[in-house]
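User: I'm new to structure prediction. If I give you an amino acid sequence, what do you actually give back? Let's try with this one:
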Amino acid sequence: MSNLLKRCLWSIYFSILLLPTPTQAHAPQEESQGFDEEIDTTYNDDLEPEFLSNYVSLTVKWGINSLLRAPQNMDLIFWRSRVVGANLYYNIPIKSSPFMVSCGADLYNADYLFKDAGYTLDRKKGTPRETTICPASKVIPTDTDAKVQKSELSIWYADFITELRFNSNKEEPQEGFFIAVGGNIGFQFSPATSIRYKEDGEDKTRTIQESFNLAKIRYGMLARMGWGRYGVFYHQTLSPLFNNKGPATPNNKSILPWSVGVSINLL
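Assistant: Good question. You get back a string of structure tokens that encode the predicted 3D arrangement of the chain. For your 267 residues, that looks like this:
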């Protein structure tokens, strides 16, 4: 009886040892839960929208410019009145939409070539010093007959620009079709006239750097469109080219510059 009892006790003892502990019993379940949570976390991250970060772009442009309602004797040669410049933009995407706001600065030079090379800009003596359009021969410092070959007005501009831009490829905005509209405000500086003429068989240039009563502040609107890094632009100045002491015209403030051309993004 005692031997039978001992055998039963030993059997119960070994049975208890072989039973899994509570920790062991729940361990696979906890590992499974941890695995499920990791899967759920990864899945949720994939569902979150990805926003495009801000970026900088540098655009260079080349084109032609002209004047609306140009004064008499200031008719321009359309294909030889040029504009060259560069725009630095800071682009801010609007969340996950295909639109963005572009803010930047613009620096460029505009040359206005007189169709009749015999004329140029000058200012009257005394007060007020109004700007006139006069024969270039009056400005050239010579007593002999000189043949004028080229007469032009050159102006530098610096502007601040704000645009609203649409991109057909919102993940890669510098690829695909784009269109942008906006406005600018800035100022002009370093205006000058240049007269090239031939005298005594030599080619000479007469350059006069003066304000010529050009309006200091200017503003306007612009539009761009294109594909990828290449595009075309149109810029219309809404402020007059001259102030109230400009060339005598029926409406001096109606002389408005405009330009059109091509552009390429270098960044």
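You can read the tokens as a compact description of the fold. Here is one thing that stands out. The helical segments are 2-18, 22-47.
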